[in-house]
Amino acid sequence: MSADEKSVGPVERYLGEVDGALAARGVEDRAEIVAELREHIDAAVGAGDPVDEVLRGMGDPQLIAAEAGGPAAPGVAVPAGRLVQAWVPVVAVGLVLVGGIGLGFVVPVLLLLGGLVLVWGSSLWSTGEKVVATLLVPAPGLALMVVAGYAVVSLEQSCTSTQVGRDVQEVCTSSGGGSGVGGIVLTVALVVVALAGITASVVLVRRGLRRARAYAGNRAAPNMVDWSTT
Fold first, then answer.
1. Is 127 helix (H, G, I), strand (E, B) or coil?
2. Are residues 89 and 28 in the same domain?
3. Same structural domain for residues 86 and 119?
4. HEC sequence for 164-187
5. Residue 73 placed within a domain
6. How many Å apart are CA 58 and CA 31, to the nearest integer?
7. Element (H, E) at 157
8. Beta-carbon contacts of residue 213 (< 8 Å; ≥ 6 apart)
9. Is residue 150 part of a domain?
10. Could you tell me which of 84, 112, 37 has the C-alpha nearest to residue 207?
């Protein structure tokens, strides 16, 4: 059996389960959703990603159906997961966001690490979303630290004394670190980074809460299905 033939089975089974879960919830545009998922899978596999990793990253079909809307049909269960309570998204993302402020100090670092442990230990986010949480969510705090440090440098002054006859003249000049084109470019870049981090935080919290409600609203099955092997 060729590699292509081996990869078709898991993908088709996965998409079939998604379609069935959407149908059970009465989602009208399920054909479009399945088509979008197929395009995403084909693109990822075409880029060289292993099929099993791609399918695991897509998420469980029941959760996809829950996000698409509609109550679950009787007997349809969302698989069990780790750290899927409603408080996890707010606390985890909040700790990472706050921990980004004051990195280099013990308490903020502990907050950041605690938040990342919750993020990576939770089943509410995909691996890609967890990477975003790790890289972008602390960004607003880091940007604030850079701005504060840049402001301090800009206010620093150096003074020189010159004796003219009996008088001593002292001339002080500031470093001017925040002026000029460089300062403007840095400011714009920091604003963009901060906005990206805030946007990522909001999106991750909203997705996490939505998925947590999906878990809470359904009786969990013992284990998630590994679509790469079934």
1. helix
2. no
3. yes
4. ECCEEEEEEEECCCCCHHHHHHHH
5. no
6. 17
7. strand 157-164
8. 66, 86
9. yes
10. 84
Residue with tokens 């690490």: 113
Cα 35 to chain center, whole Å?
Answer: 25
Q: Which of 19, 38, 68 is the last residue of a domain?
A: 68
Q: How far apart are CA 171 and CA 183, in angstroms?
A: 25
Please, are residues 188 and 143 in contact by the beta-carbon 8 Å criterion? Answer: no
What's CA 138's distance to the chain center, in Å?
10
Q: Within this chain, do residues 197 and 102 fall inside the same structural domain, yes or no? A: yes
Over its C-alpha atoms, the chain yields an Rg (Å, rounded) of 26
- 7 pLDDT above the threshold of 70: no
Domain boundary among 39, 68, 97: 68
Percent of the chain beyond pLDDT 70? 67
Q: Are residues 20 and 128 in the same domain?
A: no
Proportion of the chain in helix, strand, coil states, percent, rounded to 5: 65, 10, 30
pLDDT value of residue 168: 57
Could you list the residue range(s) of the whole structural domain that residue 173 is in? Answer: 81-218
| Contacts of residue 204, Cβ cutoff 8 Å, sequence gap at least 6 | 89, 93, 125, 129, 132, 133, 137
Q: Which residues does residue 105 pair with via DSSP β-bridges, in sequence order? A: 103
3-state DSSP call for residue 159?
Answer: strand
**Who wins on pLDDT, 217 or 189?**
189
Cα 229 off chain centre by: 28
By three-state DSSP, how is residue 225 classified? coil
Count of domains forming the chain:
2
Percentage of the chain exceeding pLDDT 90? 13
Closest CA to 72 of 206, 221, 204: 221
